[in-house]
Amino acid sequence: MPHNLPYTDWLTLHGLVTAVAVLVYAATSRAMQQRRNPTAAIAWILFILLIPYLALPVFFTFGSRKLIARRGLAQPKPLAHGSGAWAVDTLLALGQPAPARYSDLNVHADGNASRDALLAMLLTARHSIDVCTFMLGRDRLGDTIIESLSDKARSGVRVRLLIDGLGDLMSGHPDLRRLADAGAAHALFAPPLRSILRGRSNLREHRKLVIVDAGQPAQRLWCGGRNLASEYFDGEGGVAPWRDLTFDLRSELVTQASSIFERDWAFATGQRLASQAPLLLAAQASNIAQVVASGPDQSEDPIYAFLVSAVYHARHRIVLATPYFVPDAALLAAICLAARRGVAVDLLLPARSNHRLSDLARNRALRAIAQAGARVWLAPNMMHGKLAVFDDELALAGSANFDSRSLFLNYELMVAFHHAADAQRFTAWFEAERSGAQLCKPAKPGLLRDLGDGLLLWLTFQL
Fold this sequence. Notes:
Layout: H1 7-31, H2 38-50, H3 52-62, H4 85-93, E1 100-101, E2 103-107, H5 111-123, E3 128-133, H6 140-154, E4 158-164, H7 165-170, H8 177-182, E5 185-189, H9 192-195, E6 209-212, E7 220-224, E8 246-250, H10 253-269, E9 288-294, H11 302-313, E10 317-321, E11 325-326, H12 329-340, E12 344-350, H13 356-361, H14 363-372, E13 375-379, E14 387-390, E15 394-398, E16 402-403, H15 404-408, E17 412-417, H16 420-434, E18 438-440, H17 447-460
Parallel strand pairs: 3-4, 4-5, 10-12, 11-16, 12-13
Antiparallel strand pairs: 1-9, 2-8, 3-6, 6-7, 7-8, 9-17, 10-14, 13-18, 14-15, 15-17
Helix pairs in contact: 1-2, 1-3, 2-3, 11-12, 12-14
């Protein structure tokens, strides 16, 4: 307490500061459409009431969940595409682009296949290469990627590399001087120390995509859950590589991913976003898909909303793979209800992930879905793939984990495949990964363990 203020005056000043802090929180949340889980909103209010002098700076640093909307993709009118029309129409209603054709889908069996596909794709580049990743390893794989990009830049190909600012810090700052010397451009997305005053340090670029020759007839996309580091592909130092899921394809769908990269690049570099041609509706075709982007630049939470909708629409089977499973109450309730009404639900997780806190926080959700009749499978090694397949007709694959950070905070990118034959190819990847996993039967906890799980969920709900 300041010595030059009477006690009553200090209380009045403290009350005024607290009231102003609460008003600033409420006004900012409303103005920026910061819709939060009620538990998270209550936690912020309690934090502000108890320690307003600390809580308000923390809120401005980490509290933003949605940024002022940037110009999005064109939103065409809903279409009917046979029995799966609900999926297309739901994504259109969530502001996502229309279905687009694709061809030559290659689902990578393992890290070696993914690396070979990526490097081969880079070699084919004639006009441009755009790379977006959370991390670029300061290791053998990272050096190989940098060398390949540098060679292409020296040959006249336009090369742009976008790395998340926190991911760059975590990976030890890979040496990008060779890229710059070769004429390639690179940028950091929301570096923590530079974005802290703008309230963006908690909003991370988690999308992983490589786009070659965007807008050209031979344009290609490499996408999925792998960061560009050795541990995701072939391991290093005698450590087994992580199990993960990536894929590549060509044709019109690449244009959708390219539009998202252009927005992220403009945001990271402060450049003006060039006008983009509207994305046209695909003609009737069996092999159609849609890019699904989620994050602070979206007014809604498209990946989350689509997941919940797809779980409710499922009639026969749901397969889910994710390294971190900490769903919110609505998604968890949807999965439990699906299992109770007879849908076969299989969830694949690593027995122990690289985030111990996430492993502890998942226990209550695992018990709930297992009690509802779902099967939980634990892979012996680190499994980092992100996949959801519904009735072997619709597959959702990409960068988003099934936890609150990915579904509500990160910039994420998934692809919804509406072609049943290709959905079944993703199911085959799941079954191959599940073959080495062990069925888990979560035990009923004691009172203290149950209370601890609930407290952990409350503390780790990052909204």
